Amino acid sequence: MSVPNDLRYTRTHEWVREEGDTVVVGITHYAQEQLGEVVYVELPEVGRTLDAGEELGTLESVKAVSEFFSPVAGEVAEVNERLDDEPGLVNDDPYGEGWLVKITVSGDGAELMDAAAYEAFLAEEGH
Amino acid sequence: MKPRTLHDEPLIFERNPERGPRGTFRLPAGEVPPVDPRATLPAEQLREPLDLLPDLGELEVVQHFHRLSQMNFAVDEGLYPLGSCTMKYNPRVCERACRLEGFTEVHPLEPDGHVQGALELMWELERALVAITGMAAVTLQPAAGAHGELTGMLMIRKALAARGDARQAVIIPDSAHGTNPASATFAGYRALEIASGPDGTVDMAALDRMMDETVAGIMLTVPNTLGVFEHRIVEISRLVHERGGYVYLDGANLNAFVGRALPGLMGADALHINLHKTFSTPHGGGGPGAGPVAVSEALVPYLPVPRVVREGDAFRMVWEDERSIGPMRGFYANFLVLVRALAYIRGMGSDGLREMSEAAVLLANLVRRRLEGAYHLQYEAPTLHEVVFDDTFQKEHGVTNIDIAKRLLDHGFHPPTVSFPLIVHGALMIEPTESPSPEEVEAFCEAMLAIAREAAEDPERLRTAPHGTPVRRLDEVAAARSPVLRWRKE
Amino acid sequence: MHPWIGVGEADRRRILDELGLDSVDALFETVPAAVRTDRLDLPPAEDEGRLMASMRALSGRNTTAAAVPSFLGAGAYRHVQPSAVDAVLSRAEFFTSYTPYQPEISQGTLQAIFEFQTVIAGLAGLDVANASLYDGATALVEAALMSHRLLRAKRNTVVVAETVHPMYRRVLETYAGALGIAVVTVPPGEDGRTDPGRLAAAAGGDACCLVVQSPNFVGIVEDLPAVAEAAHGAGAMAVQVVAEAASLGILHGGGRFGFDIVCGEAQSLGLPLGFGGPHLGFFACREEHKRQMPGRLVGQTVDADGRRGFCLTLSTREQHIRRAKATSNICSNHGLMALAATVFMELLGGSGLRAMALGSHAAAEETKRRVLMLGDPWRLAYPIAPTFDEFLLVGPAPGEELARRAAEAGVFAGVPSRKWGGSWPDGLLVAATETTRAGEIRALVEVLGRIGR
Predict the structure, then answer these.
(1) Hey, what domains does chain B have and what are their CATH numbers?
(2) In terms of domains, do C225 and C318 share one?
(3) Residue C393 sits in a domain of what CATH number?
(4) B481 in contact with A at a CB cutoff of 8 Å?
(5) Closest Cα in chain C, distance from residue B1 (Å)
(6) Which of B48-52, B231-235, B388-392, C153-157 has the lowest mean pLDDT?
(7) Of the candidates C52, C304, C343, which has its C-beta nearest B472's C-beta?
(8) Residues from A in contact with C at Cβ < 8 Å
(9) Is C174 in contact with B154 (Cβ distance < 8 A)?
(10) Domain endpoint, select from C289, C313, C342
(11) What is the count of residue pairs from B and C with beta carbons less than 8 Å apart?
(12) Residue A39 and residue B419: Cβ atoms within 8 Å?
């Protein structure tokens, strides 16, 4: 199972990469595998302000819908518009070109796990 | 099912585009003088001659649909054990009855005196459904089961409002059909999911915690989607009623206990009845169904209008009633579906209906007996009319319930319902109904057993199934990623 | 033993033996004693002959709209009924199958629905149409709720022209009430048409959609381009509901003028009157709103060999996946009725649909002309308004009385215009179609002439 060391993780299976005062958010390899082939991604409007833990958008496969959540409080700075035409990027490259949202951080985030902790979390949850 | 024919049947729009029009269906002519619409209708709203559809002769159109029909599976073709949908035989006499001109050619707004037969038929069907459910009254309006659910929940909402009680949520088991939470939402309620206990029925302790003064009631399927009877139904209803709530029973599975048990004795306040399941009106490739709702005395005042009332020997349609939730649809009901259902009830009679439920339960138990061991059974409680296996054993070979379903197509059977209920991963929900012969059911079981063996021996054959259908496995991902929802001229 | 049950007496014993049970009662042990019954208070089974005789007796107590001159409309219209429609519907492959969840063995149903979606979208003048809804009234409800979703948290009022079928409006109120959505009704102007400006102003800035019916309840073609413009000017969705789908044979659907949703009732396209159902709801909208649509959708795709095929798609909108957050609670729709409409439209072809519309319009214009020749006290409620195949006739008595007296004289002269109330004059809604015979018009004129004296 792919869990990169340079990222931090949530219990709802988002990953977070810090880039200055913004963070990049995506879903983990594990999450995309559970969901199956992604056919549609509903992304938030740029400029929307968020609390940590708030629903950011939804990911759809043919037969399932899954929400994803903001790991931090802040404002939506950018969304991955390529996903409109290529939602499969979430499956093919979840930690790279399949990123979802960039958020300008304005406050404290929820508690995030490092890679080791996330792997332990997956194991503990019986995944 | 015929294998793929040599040619694919083109879309009607692709037929003879350049060859010019042919004689189409002949319309009445010469009765009145023609009118130039440019003189009588707003010019900017007039359309040019329609180029949407080619003008074809009758045989071309009939052949088109005949060929399309050859690519469909149907109840008349073989076992169609689609769990929860109850795909039983559709008796032909019911089809004949509903095509009588005295039913088909009746306008819904003729004066009541001219539609006494239609009104009496509705009245009689209501009485029959009251007898079958043991409830106080019935509305025939809902067009389908989900529509019935909403009708029932709106009545509950109105009854609560009448006593000044605004409640916000409805309890729904995690095994419920998706229409239950959706109907609760459209009735203005939040759906509160209650987890099923280890035997697949409602967890009483959880219900006790959840059922408070903010909860309007519970929506419960009996027997539930696992085919298991909620054996504490009386206690559940009592608890809900004591706390001021109402009990909605989803009657999708009424066919399991007709003549054996009465929802009226279970404490139900509202119950919808899928006429296209229990009373065998045809499913029509997706409808029309009909979802009459039976109610307890407590909800009678809130029944939708219009209602049929009997006055002596005459029947009348009443449109106004201040306490009613109002109408749920145009006109009265899916009337021609009601005709079929009443014909079915009369054709079965009291004994036949009882025998129907018994045979359905017997055949479901036969399936369970034959497949136990080869397929995993998550919930082992006694089975009524359907049984839910899953693909746990086959997953070890990388074979899923979808693969099993697709492979069944090659054996000439319709697959069971897959991936429902949601509480069973990789579910295969099998409902044979009472109509097939035991040999047909046994042959289905043999096919299932052969597939279970094949899963171990040649899993790839399963993953690439079906192999003998008019088309092969379809790319549903591509369909959803870039939806093409209509034909367009190139 | 019963012919519709596949298990005989010996079968039953054999299965019970295999299950190791003495009697079938053992299978029902989980049913608590308190809820059990051992009898049904229903008559014994009837054989086919008696069954048909009793059903025929019931049907014989209805007057068919074909047996007497009939000018009844108001949401259900008598049009031609090609025999081939019912012949196709009677094929077991269509009527004894169910929702095409397994596309490999449902290509017939799926392709027919795809053709239905294509034609409906084309008639509506919009991009996409769904696989059907229950009827015109519930289609209107779904349109209003979709508009509300699209403007969620911003707008909470549905503005409806009073000339939308009163039955549809009442159904809308049933649904909207539970969701706390306000419904505001705007009466027509003196010419029987809805004033777009008044419609747009009715809810201040709170309208999520403006709804008009065209042709409207009193038969009049609304000013669709102006309504669409007014709706968009007010930041609201423009919704057209159609109760008489035959009109679409000569009139553009609202999509042409910028309407966002065109929905309604398609009974006129091949379905029998059937005492009000099952009829056929249709629903079309813009491509960009497709993920908020209610109901099933069929899409085109390819199979494992790369050949064209069809399957249900965008299912994540629906209740079986999104459950409480679904765009509608609908599951079973009116698939077989959609098939009927598809066969009907393909039998008539483009030119036939146009000819049917022209024939209906001409019959109504001729009926109008003949009735007006009676002179006082008969007059049109809205003399200059353009109507399609239905018009509001005012006479010497309220509509209920006129309808009753005409029916006693053997003519269904029309539907009382205030059956459900309304701010329009109290008279008869008179509908004629391509099936209306010259003799029927003469009979109507004769009966009205006698009533008027």
Answers:
(1) 12-69 (no CATH), 93-346 (3.40.640.10), 350-477 (3.90.1150.10)
(2) yes
(3) 3.90.1150.10
(4) yes
(5) 8
(6) B48-52
(7) C304
(8) 40, 60-65
(9) yes
(10) C342
(11) 718
(12) no
Above pLDDT 90, what percent of chain B?
93
> In this structure, are C148 and C180 located in the same domain?
yes
Domains and their CATH numbers in chain A:
9-108 (2.40.50.100)
Beta-sheet strand order (sheet of A8-9)? A8-9, A14-19, A22-27, A101-105, A74-79, A49-50
Q: How far apart are the first and last CA of chain A?
A: 10
C174 lies in some domain:
yes
Contact B61 C63 (CB under 8 A): no
Query: Which of C273, C307, C342 represents a domain boundary (last residue)?
Result: C342
Task: Choose among B44, B101, B329: nearest Cβ to C137.
Answer: B329
Confidence class for position B438, pLDDT limits 50, 70, 90:
very high
Tokens of C80: 């031609």
Calpha distance B245→B213 (Å, rounded): 8
Q: In this structure, are residues A63 and C315 in contact, taking their beta carbons and an 8 Å threshold? A: yes
What is the crossing angle of helices C9-19 and B335-371, to 10°?
Answer: 40
Domain count of the fold of chain C: 2
Q: Measured between CA atoms, how close is C247 to chain B, in angstroms?
A: 10
Q: Which domain holds residue C245?
A: 84-342
Each residue's pLDDT tens digit, B362-407:
999 999 999 999 999 999 999 999 999 999 999 999 999 999 999 9
Q: Rounded to an integer, what is the distance from CA C14 to the centroid of its chain?
A: 49
| Cα of C9 vs its chain's centroid, Å | 46
B241's torsion region: left (phi>0), alpha (psi -120 to 50) or beta?
alpha
Contacts of A65 in chain C (CB under 8 A): 316, 321-322, 325
CA distance C314 to chain A (A): 7
Q: Would you give the DSSP letter of residue C246?
A: G
Task: Find the farthest-apart pair of alpha carbons in chain A and give their distance in angstroms, rounded.
Answer: 38
Q: What is the DSSP letter of C36?
A: B
CB-nearest partner of C434 from B28, B331, B358: B28
Chain C partners (3+ C-beta pairs within 8 A): A, B
Residue of C nearest to B24 (CA): C348
Q: What angle do CA B303, B304, B307 make, to 5 degrees?
A: 90
How far apart are the CA of A64 and the nearest CA of chain C, in angstroms? Answer: 6
Q: Does C314 share its domain with C375?
A: no
Kindly provide the b/e burial profile for residues C104-127, where b requires at least 16 CB atoms within 10 angstroms of the residue's own CB: bbbbbbbbbbbbbbbbbbbbbbbb
- One domain, residues C435 and C365: yes
Q: How confident is the model at residue A1 (pLDDT cuts 50, 70, 90)?
A: low
Minimal C-alpha gap between A31 and chain B (Å): 17
Q: Whole-number mean pLDDT of chain A? A: 92
Per-residue confidence in pLDDT tens, chain C, 453 aa: 899 999 999 999 999 999 999 999 999 999 999 999 998 999 999 999 999 999 999 999 999 988 899 999 999 999 999 999 999 999 999 999 999 999 999 999 999 999 999 999 999 999 999 999 999 999 999 999 999 999 977 899 999 999 999 999 999 999 999 999 999 999 999 999 999 999 999 988 999 999 999 999 999 999 999 999 999 999 999 999 999 999 999 999 999 999 999 999 999 999 999 999 999 999 999 999 999 999 999 999 999 999 999 999 999 999 999 999 999 999 999 999 999 999 999 999 999 999 999 999 999 999 999 999 999 999 999 999 999 999 999 999 999 999 999 999 999 999 999 999 999 999 999 999 999 999 999 999 999 999 987
Say what the ipTM of the complex is.
0.98
Nearest to C329 among B114, B146, B363 (CB): B146
The Cα B446–Cα A3 span in angstroms is 45
How far, rounded to the nearest angstrom, does the alpha carbon of residue B197 sit from its chain's CA centroid?
A: 27
Per the CB < 8 Å rule, is A40 touching C321? no
- The answer to whether A37 faces chain B, any CB pair under 8 Å, is yes
Q: CB–CB of C55 and B97 under 8 A? A: yes
Share of chain A above pLDDT 70, in %: 95
* C149 and chain A in contact, CB less than 8 A: no
CA distance C373 to C393: 13
Instruction: Give domain status of residue C307, yes or no.
Output: yes
Nearest residue, CB atoms, C98 vs list B87, B325, B334? B87
